[in-house]
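Homework help thread (please don't just give me the answer)

Our assignment gives two proteins as sequence + C-alpha cell strings and asks us to describe the second one. The first is just a warm-up. Here they are:
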Amino acid sequence: MKITVPATSANIGPGFDSVGVAVSKYLTIEVLEPADAWHIEHDLGDIPSDENNLLISTALQVKSDLQPHKLVMTSDIPLARGLGSSSSVIVAGIELANQLADLKLSDDDKLDIATKIEGHPDNVAPAIFGNLVVASYVDEHVNSIVTDFPECAFVAFIPSYELKTSDSRGVLPSDLSYKEAVAASSIANVAIAALFAG
C-alpha cells in the first residue's frame, strides 16, 4: 500500500490560517510488512524513525492500537520551509490509520481530525482535497470550500534555514485595530474573489 500527499502553500495573500493550495511536490509512504515495532526507513535527516515520528504519532492519535509496520518514507517537500511538510505528514498519518484499521473515514472526517491536530486548516485542507481550499475553524468546527485552481507555475523561495510555524508566529502582532481589521477583511474578500475567478 502507498499513501501520497501533496505539498501545500498556505496563508495565501491575506488568507491567514484559511487559504491554501496543493502544490505538485509529494510525500510518499510505502507500507511494508507488519512488525513488532514501528520502523520508518527514510533519508530525511534526523527525524525519528520510530513511533516518535509525526507520521506514527498522528496515526496513533487516530487509532491507538494499530499494528506496527515497517514503512518507507520519501519526500521531495522541503522540510520546515513553508510548503506544508508537517501538514503532509499529519494527513499521511491519518490516512495510515484509516487504511490499516479500515476506518472508512470520509475526507471531511480527515479534515476535522487534521485541523484539530494542526490547529488550523489552511495546509491540511489542500493536502486532503487538492486544488485551492478556503476554510475556517471556529469553535472546533471546520467549514471548507474547494475550487479548481488553474494549472500554473509557482516560484518558491526556499531559505537555507528551517523556520517552524510556531517560531514564525512569534513575530505577529497580538491585536489589530478596527481600521486594520476592516482593511484586512476587504483585501481578503477581493483576493478570494480573484482566486475563484482564476
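The one we have to describe:
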Amino acid sequence: MKTGSTKQDGNIAISLPGRLPLSCIVVFLWVAAYNMYTGRVMLVGYPAWGTLALLALVLIALPRRSDWSYWRQWRSRFAWCTAVSLALLAMLTLSERTIFIQHDVPSFLVRIVASLTTLLRFEAIPASGEVAIWTDLGWRRIACHAESFGVEYGLAALLWCVCFCALLRSPLRRLRFAVTVVCILLAYQCLRFTLAAVLYAETSWSGILWNPIVMCLSQLPLAAILNRVGVKYTARCNASEAQPQRIALSRMEKYANPLGFAALSAGLALLVIAFWYKPLGVQQFGRVLIDDAHSNWEWSTPFERHSFGEKATYGYGSLRALLQRYWPTDVNESTSLDSIDLSLYQVVILKTPTKPYTPSEIDAVLEFIHAGGGVWMIGDHDNLFGMGQYLNSM
C-alpha cells in the first residue's frame, strides 16, 4: 500500500500504512541481544554479543519500502531508532532496580498456571510463588519468577504499544489497542510458562526456564501475533473513515534536525548513565578463593542442568562466574583453611557457613589478614543454621 504526505496548515499530514513502522520482532531481538551482551548467558565472549546488539540496531534503522515517506529520511529514522534503543536500555536498567527486586509474580498468575497445567492432564497445586506439578518421580516444585515469565519482553512489548498508540489520533482507539495488547501479553506468557513448566517437570531440562536463547525463540510468536494485531488494527482504522486518517507530525519534524535528535539522545543517555553506571575503581590483580567447605546451604556450583534443584544456587553460581571473568577464582570444597593455602590468594570469601571454624582456621585467616589479604564474609537470614554465630567467631 503506497502512502503519501501533504502540507496542511503548516503540518505534515501522513496516512497510516498497512504495515507498522517498527516491528515488535525487532524490539524483541534487541532485548535478546541485551540479555546476551550483559552476560545472562555466557556462551561466547563480549565481541560476539556486541555484534548481535549492533545488528539488532541496524535492523531497526534499515529502511523498508512499506514505511512512511517521512521515515525514509535517514536523519529522522536515526533519531527514532536511537530514542527507542535508549528507551529500551533505560527501561531494562531501571527495571533491574525495581521490578526484579520482587521476583515472585502475582498470586493470580500462579493460580492461572496451575489451572492451565490441570487442563493439560497434569496434577498441579498453586503455592506461594511457585507451582507444584506431580510427576512419576514425585512433586516437582517450580518457582514462578518474573524473569521466567518473560517480564523483560513484556516491558519491550509495552514500549512498542506506546510507540504505536502515539500514532493513533483517537484516545478510544488507543485505549482499545492497549487493552488488547495487555490481554494478549498476559495470556501468551501464562500459556508459554505453563508449557515450559510441564516440559521441565517431565524432562528435567532446566534450560527452558532460564536460557536467554530459548526465551527469545519462545517469545518470537508473541511478537508476530502483536505485529499482526497492529496491522489489522491499522487497516481497520483506515477503512472506518471516509478519508485516510492523517497525523500531524510538525512537532516530530524538528527531531529530523541533527541538533534536535542529538540533544534527545544525549539526554536519554545521561538518564541511563545516572541510574546505571557506578565507578568500580582501579582494577587490581589478585586471586580469589571461595570457601564452600564450611557451607552446606548454598554452593557456588554453576547453576545448570545437573546441579539444578540441588544445593547450587543461581546467586552464588553467578557470583563465581562474574569473579572468574576478571580474576583467577578457585573454590575450596573439602579442605580446611590453613596459612599455606591462603597465602596463594589475595581475597577469601567466607560464605554462609553451616559448621564452625576451628581455632586453627581462625588463626590462619587472621594471619592472612595481617599479611594484607582481604576477607569477604557473607551470611543469610537470622543466624540460619548458625551462620551468624560462626561468622561472629571468625
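TA reply:
I won't write it for you, but here's a hint about the kind of observation we're looking for: DSSP finds 14 helices and ten strands in the chain.
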